[in-house]
Please model this.
Amino acid sequence: MKLYDNKMAPNPRRVRMFIAEKNISYSQAGIELVNVDIAKGETFSETFKKMSPYGGLPVLELDDGDCITESMAICRYFEELYPEHPLMGVDAKSKAMIEMWNRRIEINLYQSIAMSFRHGNPMWKSVTTQVAEFSQVSGVNADKNIHKLDKHLKHSEYVAGHEFSVADITALCAIDFAKVIGRRINEEKHPHLARWHKQVSARDSAKV
Model:
């Protein structure tokens, strides 16, 4: 199978971190990493759009030719194939809590950062009708959600409880991605988020 990837983009990083946390060997699992150059517009080529109609990364092309897009769908595929070291929960409650927090981070934090970047950075002008005010509003929403996450982490070691999960992967990739809109963790303003960030950033998977 082939995993279409880009080292600079946050969603492919989510999948790479997930695979690393699962201790999956690319060679033993038969996974070939294929770099896709976003800056050169390769995600908008007709060939790529046949695999990913919305032009997003990552894409997992299976040996039978079927393609799985969306980072969490790809993670789910590997979770089912390799149930050891579960990252999506072990029972009804933990699965629901992880799903809840993962969705909260995706919809409220990651999406705000992505929209602020997409509507405020010149690199998107050719493919997006940019609205500068929307970029600014999205940046403010990102700030609010960073604050909410800091408050939550005051009472929780990890995003979805006492165990590292896919929700932490999503949150880390979102927080690190926020640098593209000029956001950095402030230890004085966000001490609990800073504690968590240092902790998860030290994991081997965070370096892939």
Q: What stands out?
A: The first strand starts at residue 2 and ends at 5. The chain has two domains: 2-81, 92-207.
